[in-house]
């Protein structure tokens, strides 16, 4: 049934004082209302949903899916998300009350992991699996894969790549070093080890022990190296440095002698010198050296009594026996009862050991002719020798005096009064001994105690 209505309205306005007349007319269009049909099974077009499912309920029953008033529920397949209306109804204008479609569901993009990567079977779509791998030298911590679930979230938690592999380091081989000649140490060198790591190039290698290129003492030395990578993974190695001092059998001094040895006394390169006690002279080598084959070089020396020929006829013949061997201290006094001589004799006897160490022989000239005597210890000198000594060194018979001669027979000092051992030794040590003799004397400083 159709209803039509036409209306014409004329409105006349008068505006006072203006002289203006306005005409306005209004028309209404024809209004057509469709004839509703609740029995037409195709009132609305059949609904469809790609990658989804439509479930409809009609007032007329299941056979009427698109009749007027039918309501349909929209749902998407797994992995798809519904966009639009979940429920639509067939309206009188032959249209549905809304629209909907199913969009493929995605998970958010996974973040990158340090020192690793991942690959996915279907990108970031539902049911896609992403497998994680780490760079060389790193190990996965956590689940090695994640799956994009149907609700758009990833399974599990994001794994990390951790450096769990320790670095590698190799020490040099252990080594044996023989101490240098005359020393108890040896200089040992080696190339510091290099460390490698699969994850890092910059490594901190630390030495625990003595530095290479330094002197190592006798015995075993353990040298350690340790290294840390940036993840504080640790590696270490060690080797042994052994220093050997080659030694000769202990060297014993012969009778009436003593030894002064350098270094440790019997190590390779050590030198031992023979020194005879007072009144004795050396026969044989003056020193022996410990050799690399652990034996002493040369044959042992011996100390024998000094054979002084007191029965010579001239002073030069006597002095030649001491040339470059002994120093002489000539003591002269008017007689044996002279108080200066007696005092000096007592002090000389006490200084006998010290004089022997300094290679000093005492000659006494006592009295006047015809009872004048000269002696070296118990050996008496000929009158011609006594007179020759007095003339050669201008020694008077009238008063007490002493003349000190060096090893070349030169007059080095004169004393006109008794001299104590300290003063006498001080002069000899300062002016008659060379540097080598002073060093030897220092080593034997307690010999006469």
From TrEMBL:
<keyword id="KW-0677">Repeat</keyword>
<dbReference type="GO" id="GO:0045202">
    <property type="term" value="C:synapse"/>
</dbReference>
<feature type="domain" description="Sushi">
    <location>
        <begin position="246"/>
        <end position="305"/>
    </location>
</feature>
<dbReference type="InterPro" id="IPR003410">
    <property type="entry name" value="HYR_dom"/>
</dbReference>
<keyword id="KW-0768">Sushi</keyword>
<keyword id="KW-1015">Disulfide bond</keyword>
<keyword id="KW-0963">Cytoplasm</keyword>
<dbReference type="Pfam" id="PF02494">
    <property type="entry name" value="HYR"/>
</dbReference>
<dbReference type="InterPro" id="IPR035976">
    <property type="entry name" value="Sushi/SCR/CCP_sf"/>
</dbReference>
<keyword id="KW-0037">Angiogenesis</keyword>
<dbReference type="InterPro" id="IPR000436">
    <property type="entry name" value="Sushi_SCR_CCP_dom"/>
</dbReference>
<dbReference type="Pfam" id="PF00084">
    <property type="entry name" value="Sushi"/>
</dbReference>
<feature type="disulfide bond">
    <location>
        <begin position="276"/>
        <end position="303"/>
    </location>
</feature>
<keyword id="KW-0130">Cell adhesion</keyword>
<feature type="disulfide bond">
    <location>
        <begin position="134"/>
        <end position="161"/>
    </location>
</feature>
<protein>
    <recommendedName>
        <fullName>Sushi repeat-containing protein SRPX2</fullName>
    </recommendedName>
</protein>
<dbReference type="GO" id="GO:0090050">
    <property type="term" value="P:positive regulation of cell migration involved in sprouting angiogenesis"/>
</dbReference>
<dbReference type="GO" id="GO:0098609">
    <property type="term" value="P:cell-cell adhesion"/>
</dbReference>
<dbReference type="GO" id="GO:0009986">
    <property type="term" value="C:cell surface"/>
</dbReference>
<feature type="signal peptide">
    <location>
        <begin position="1"/>
        <end position="19"/>
    </location>
</feature>
<dbReference type="GO" id="GO:0001525">
    <property type="term" value="P:angiogenesis"/>
</dbReference>
<dbReference type="Pfam" id="PF13778">
    <property type="entry name" value="DUF4174"/>
</dbReference>
<dbReference type="InterPro" id="IPR025232">
    <property type="entry name" value="DUF4174"/>
</dbReference>
<feature type="domain" description="Sushi">
    <location>
        <begin position="54"/>
        <end position="104"/>
    </location>
</feature>
<dbReference type="GO" id="GO:0005102">
    <property type="term" value="F:signaling receptor binding"/>
</dbReference>
<feature type="domain" description="HYR">
    <location>
        <begin position="162"/>
        <end position="245"/>
    </location>
</feature>
<keyword id="KW-0770">Synapse</keyword>
<keyword id="KW-0964">Secreted</keyword>
<dbReference type="InterPro" id="IPR043555">
    <property type="entry name" value="SRPX-like"/>
</dbReference>
<dbReference type="GO" id="GO:0005737">
    <property type="term" value="C:cytoplasm"/>
</dbReference>
<dbReference type="GO" id="GO:0051965">
    <property type="term" value="P:positive regulation of synapse assembly"/>
</dbReference>
<dbReference type="GO" id="GO:0005576">
    <property type="term" value="C:extracellular region"/>
</dbReference>
<keyword id="KW-0732">Signal</keyword>
<feature type="domain" description="Sushi">
    <location>
        <begin position="105"/>
        <end position="163"/>
    </location>
</feature>
């Amino acid at each position: 049934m159709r209803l039509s209505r036409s209306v014409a309205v004329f409105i006349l306005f008068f505006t006072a004082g203006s002289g203006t007349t306005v005409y306005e007319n209004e028309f209404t269009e024809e209004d057509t209302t469709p004839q509703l049909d609740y029995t037409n099974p195709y009132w609305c077009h059949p609904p469809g949903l790609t990658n989804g499912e439509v479930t409809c309920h009609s007032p007329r029953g299941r056979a009427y899916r698109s009749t007027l008033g039918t309501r349909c529920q929209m749902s998407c397949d797994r992995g798809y998300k519904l966009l639009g209306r979940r429920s639509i109804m067939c309206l009188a204008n032959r249209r549905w009350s809304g629209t909907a479609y199913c969009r493929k569901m995605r998970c958010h993009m996974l973040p990158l992991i340090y020192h690793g990567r991942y690959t996915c079977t279907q990108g970031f779509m539902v049911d896609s699996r992403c497998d994680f791998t780490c760079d060389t030298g790193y190990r996965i911590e956590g689940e090695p894969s994640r799956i994009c679930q149907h609700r758009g979230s990833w399974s599990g938690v994001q794994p990390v790549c951790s450096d769990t592999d320790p670095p590698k380091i190799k020490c040099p081989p252990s080594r044996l070093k023989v101490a240098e000649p005359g020393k108890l140490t040896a200089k040992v060198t080696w190339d510091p080890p290099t460390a490698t790591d699969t994850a890092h190039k910059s490594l901190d290698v630390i030495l625990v022990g003595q530095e290479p290129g330094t002197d190592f003492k006798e015995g075993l030395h353990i040298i350690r190296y340790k290294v840390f990578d940036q993840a504080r993974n640790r590696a270490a190695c060690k080797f042994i440095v052994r220093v050997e001092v080659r030694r000769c059998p202990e060297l014993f001094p012969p009778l009436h002698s003593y030894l002064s040895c350098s270094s440790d006394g019997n190590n390779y390169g050590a030198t031992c010198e023979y020194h005879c006690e007072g009144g004795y002279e050396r026969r044989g080598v003056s020193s022996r050296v410990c050799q690399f084959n652990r034996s002493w070089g040369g044959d042992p020396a011996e100390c024998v009594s000094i054979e002084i020929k007191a029965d010579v006829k001239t002073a030069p013949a006597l002095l030649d026996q001491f040339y470059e061997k002994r120093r002489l201290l000539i003591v002269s006094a008017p007689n044996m009862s002279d108080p200066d001589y007696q005092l000096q004799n007592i002090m000389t006897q006490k200084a006998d050991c010290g004089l022997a160490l300094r290679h000093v022989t005492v000659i006494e000239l006592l009295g006047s002719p015809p009872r004048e005597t000269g002696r070296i210890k118990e050996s008496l000198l000929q009158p011609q020798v006594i007179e020759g000594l007095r003339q050669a060194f201008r020694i008077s018979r009238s008063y007490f005096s002493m003349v000190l001669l060096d090893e070349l027979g030169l007059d080095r000092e004169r004393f006109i009064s008794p001299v104590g051992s300290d003063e006498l030794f001080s002069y000899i040590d300062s002016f008659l001994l060379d540097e080598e003799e002073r060093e030897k004397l220092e080593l034997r400083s307690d010999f006469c105690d």
